[in-house]
Amino acid sequence: MISVPEHITLSQGAGGRDMQRLLDDVIYQYLDPLSLQRDDAATFALNSLAQSGDRLAFTTDTYTVSPLRFRGGDIGALAVNGTVNDLACSGAIPRFLSLSLIIEEGFALEELRFYLQSLQQAAHSAEVTIVTGDTKVMPRGAIDGLVINTSGLGVIPSDRQPGIDRLKTGDTVIVSGFIGDHGTAILGARSDLQLDIDVTSDCKAITPLTELLFAHGGVRFVRDATRGGLAAVLNEIASSSQQGVRVRETAIPVRPAVRSTCELLGFDPLSLANEGTFVAVLAADTAGSALEELRRHPHGLHATAIGEITDRRPGKVELESAFGATRLLDMPRGELLPRIC
């Protein structure tokens, strides 16, 4: 029996026997054999999807995180959770993923197995199925180790209508937990910084919390605070709705280790990426009970109301300090922390 080489070769991306052996002996071993469709396209029965909702949500994302492993996660788990979370924010119940691997020649097979196993575990936890995919191999030096693309398909129940156009003056703005954890964990994992940062990434699927929110009702808008962090999401809300957003700085949950790392390196925790934390706008009369629901779940213990939608300063975000003074919180600019997802 011919074994698969210990390092990826160009021939394993060329479509011949070596590639088929890589698929059969390695990649397919981490995918559900009953769900994976080996045709040119995955097919779905529309009647089964229609039982869960009346609309589909579709999203795609490519993951280039550096380093590939970090405290609390890795590129495999990130590639599942990031795409699942985009679907969840639209109100969808995530169902299916595609998986595309772009692998550098010479990449260790043991490393690939590690990320595939992590990806498999994340998909199982998020209750999504990988149904199709693609594998390419690039020459040594053309990419940095491994790049993963996932696309996701979900079903939106008919009673869910989140959207930026639904915001009203007085609505409550919440975050689902601590902010800046993922960006700080990436900083700690980069060897060139040589920092011992005791912060774990929040890399996880947010579907348990978004499902609680939508079941509770009063949801106007949801967005996961990834690149650009909380500051980017708040500014997107303000500019897209042309309403004001007023946020209390003291209400925003930031871990002391995240804050101190940002002070040391010159980052703003409000602009650091998150990979399992979202911002939601809720009807004011439902926000209190919705937060109680979230805090009953282990992932929502630190869910917090941080501000409200206002008719002041349309299109702008106002940040209120502990002393009552306010300043405008701008959209993050320039080179932020690169390759965080």
Brief characterization of the structure:
The protein is of the alpha+beta class. It contains 9 helices and 13 strands. It is globular.
Give the key terms:
alpha+beta; 60s Ribosomal Protein L30, Chain: A; seven-stranded mixed β-sheet; 30% helix; PurM-like_N; PurM-like_C_sf; PurM-like_N_sf; Hydrogenase expression/formation protein HypE
Overview of the molecule:
Belongs to the HypE family. Residues 39-156 form the PurM-like N-terminal domain. Residues 168-318 form the PurM-like C-terminal domain. The protein is an alpha+beta fold and 341 residues long. It has 2 domains: 10-156, 2-Layer Sandwich (60s Ribosomal Protein L30, Chain: A), CATH 3.30.1330; 164-328, Phosphoribosyl-aminoimidazole Synthetase, Chain A, domain 2, CATH 3.90.650. It has 9 helices and 13 strands. It has a 7-stranded mixed beta sheet with strand order 8-10-7-11-9-12-13. A 4-stranded mixed beta sheet has the order 1-6-4-5, covered by helices on one side. Strands 2-3 form a two-stranded antiparallel ribbon. Strand 4 (93-104), helix 4 (109-126) and strand 5 form a beta-alpha-beta unit.
